[in-house]
Design goal:
It is a single chain. This protein is of the alpha/beta class. It has a single domain (2-206), classed as Spore Coat Polysaccharide Biosynthesis Protein SpsA, Chain A, CATH 3.90.550. The chain has helices spanning 29-38, 51-54, 70-81, 99-107, 140-149, 158-161, 169-172, 188-206; strands at residues 2-7, 23-24, 27-28, 43-47, 60-62, 86-91, 114-117, 133-137, 164-167. The strands form two sheets. It has a seven-stranded mixed beta sheet, with helices on both faces. It has a two-stranded antiparallel sheet with strand order 2-3. Strand 4 (43-47), helix 2 and strand 5 form a beta-alpha-beta unit. The termini are far apart.
Length: 207
């Protein structure tokens, strides 16, 4: 059993409006995220400190338990409120989630505290962890609470404190070849790019 958590706590400063409700084809960004998550999650939660804006979505909502600590606080709230031990966290602005990849990440959690895809190869000295397309175990709760107490707010720093399995491109590309699950929208340029991707995917399904 899996709980899906959608984080909608960003300020959308670079976009100039609430990006969750930008249109992409026939739906909003968050609408696409909800569809993607419903295909793999037994329970769906939305973490937001502005519940009135999202009330029409008819999703169980929770606010940040610990305020003003960024994304890590949203993940913490999602884990605390989740009914299931396995929790997958995504942002509200990632419209191209691939259920095959999400299911794979869930399947390899095992006894790990978290499973995080990385966009760098094993041989690279640096790696970029996709912390908002990650599967977390509720075992992370005390670890994250200790990090927050120490004012360590970097989500990727979880790998220094927890037993994290990194999934490298050699593996995740088997399920999401172009890594579109990791595409999120922060700027007007990202939004334009997302529209191009959406049209390409739409045309591909028509052929």
């Amino acid at each position: 059993m899996v709980t899906g958590v959608i984080l909608a706590g960003g300020k959308s400063r670079r976009m100039g409006q609430n990006k969750a409700f930008l249109r992409l084809g026939s739906d909003t960004l968050i609408g696409h995220v909800i569809k993607g998550m419903k295909s793999i999650a037994d329970e769906l939660l939305l973490i937001t400190n502005k519940p009135d804006e999202y009330a029409h979505l008819d999703i169980e909502m929770h606010h940040d338990i610990i305020q003003n600590v960024g994304t890590l606080g949203g993940i913490h709230s999602g884990l605390k409120n989740a009914s299931h031990q396995t929790v997958i966290c995504v942002g509200c602005d990632s419209p191209f989630l691939n259920p095959n990849l999400l299911n794979y990440l869930v399947s390899v959690l095992g006894n790990y505290d978290a499973v995080m895809p990385t966009t760098k190869k094993v041989s690279d000295t640096q790696k970029t962890l996709q912390t908002l397309c990650t599967v977390y175990s509720k075992q992370c709760i005390p670890i994250i609470e200790e990090m927050l107490q120490q004012s360590e707010l970097r989500v990727h720093a979880l790998q220094e404190h927890a037993n994290v399995l990194s999934i490298h491109p050699e593996k995740w590309k088997l399920y999401d070849p172009d890594g579109l699950s990791f595409f999120n929208i922060n700027t007007p340029e990202d939004y334009i790019h997302a529209q191009s991707i959406y049209e390409h995917l739409l045309n591909s399904t028509r052929k």
